[in-house]
Amino acid sequence: MSTSRPVWAADAPERVLVVDGAPTSVRTWIARTRKQRNTGLLGTDGLDGALWIKACNWVHTFGMRYALDLVYVGRHGRVVAVTTAPPRRLCLPRLNAHATIEMPTGTAAQLNIVRGTIIDTTPRI
Fold first, then answer.
1. Are 26 and 50 in contact (CB under 8 A)?
2. Which InterPro entries match (predicted)?
3. Architecture of the CATH domain 13-123
4. Helix ranges restricted to H, the chain
5. For residue range 18-75, what is the model confidence (pLDDT) as tens digits?
């Protein structure tokens, strides 16, 4: 079975990504618990949206079959770094990040997400 959202997100409320105050069409799941953060996107074949990982300043892509854009977010929602991570890699920590957003490769560029961008989420309507 192919899945394009976190396996733990079946009952999680969907949100959408907000970039510089403008809601986007990118649905977003928020990993809040330790179990959700540890599981992340494992078991997915791709991603249709974004995963916002709270209390996280570094990630790895071991067990992943696809590359990801990583958006590191500071305390007040300001982007501190954007990078692309290939599968099966350990990514460098960003000490000033308080969350990491994982999204399909190329999504950050499409949404003009760069260092200094303000990012948030809002409930999906």
1. yes
2. DUF192 (IPR003795), Saro_0823-like_sf (IPR038695)
3. Sandwich (2.60)
4. 34-39, 107-110
5. 999 999 999 999 988 888 888 888 888 888 899 999 999 999 888 888 999 999 999 9
